[in-house]
Design brief:
Layout (H helix, E strand, L loop, with lengths): L1 E6 L15 H23 L4 E2 L11 E2 L3 H18 L6 H30 L7 H30 L21 E6 L26 H11 L8 H12 L5 H8 L3 H21 L1
Helix pairs in contact: 1-2, 1-3, 2-3, 2-4, 3-4, 5-6, 5-8, 7-8
Length: about 280
């Protein structure tokens, strides 16, 4: 029998340098100028313009309401894309709403740019009635989508154990590789003088011992009066923190939980961990 030892390393950020996002600024700068000018121009064609929001208080203060279109529409589209693609949202309902509302926002934004440039090239000084109606509704639509997405995200934070499949009652299994495994490989080459090996006695067979972190996780979950902690997730957090020396933020990102959840789990297990070390 030949025994091979290998180490299963998790996806660690230290193994590969993260992709830099700063080149996006070079792409966003010219797009921002074009989109801003297009929305402001469309707003002016549809009746948006300078208003005095504080009459009788500050009569000289005015603001051009045309800037509300690019700020509201494009900001929401960017944030909805982040919620959809970041992987930090576990609820399928929230991610689905972010996905389709982001696509709708980008589609409306593209339609608005097209409408403005067509009217500008045609020399129009005011937009048709239908275009004016649609553009006037955009701030209300953006407000509604933004408020709905904010409520969904807040609801998920209040219920951190929300599953990806709402119909499932059991928590998602957390797949964490063991740090060291022993793999037995039987050599195909026969021995020169093979001798029959005696069958092992039943009491001599190896007995699988429970994982240290799993046993500690069950103790932590048993002490939780609310019973909200998942033993597998607690074991994963303890293993990554104490064996792999991962940071709390790295653990939270890897397991799809909040950093505060990781902090509370480590704090709850500290007393049990100290008791375990003392009884050794």
């Amino acid at each position: 029998m030949t025994t091979l030892n290998h180490t299963d390393t998790p996806r660690a950020h230290a193994q590969s340098r993260p992709v830099r996002a700063w080149p996006i600024a070079l792409l966003a700068a010219p797009a921002f100028v074009a989109i801003w000018s297009g929305w402001v121009g469309l707003g002016e064609l549809t009746g948006f313009g300078p208003v005095h929001p504080l009459p009788g208080i500050a009569d000289g203060f005015s603001i051009n309401t045309a800037i509300t279109l690019p700020i509201g529409m494009e900001t929401y589209a960017s944030y909805a894309l982040y919620v959809w693609l970041s992987g930090r949202i576990r609820s399928d309902r929230t991610r689905g709403f972010a996905k389709w509302s982001a696509i709708a926002s980008l589609t409306l934004g593209a339609a608005g740019q097209v409408a403005y440039h067509l009217m500008e090239s045609a020399g129009m000084t005011s937009a048709p009635a239908l275009v004016t109606v649609l553009v006037a509704c955009l701030p209300v639509v953006v407000l509604g989508m933004g408020a709905a997405l904010a409520h969904m995200i807040a609801s998920e934070r209040h219920h951190p154990d929300t599953m990806r499949t709402p119909a499932a009652d059991a928590p998602d299994p957390v797949t964490v590789t063991e740090p060291v495994h022993a793999v037995s490989v039987r050599e195909d080459q026969p021995d020169p003088d093979p001798e029959p090996a005696p069958a092992p006695a039943p009491e001599a067979e190896a007995v699988a011992l429970p994982d240290r972190w799993e046993a500690l996780a069950h103790r932590v979950c048993a002490a939780d009066p609310n019973g909200r902690r998942d033993p597998e997730r607690v074991a994963a957090i303890l293993r990554l923190r104490h064996e792999q020396q991962w940071t709390r933020a790295h653990i939270a990102d890897h397991l799809g939980v909040s950093a505060s959840t990781v902090t509370r789990t480590l704090a709850a297990s500290a007393a049990h961990l100290t008791e375990t070390e003392t009884t050794k």
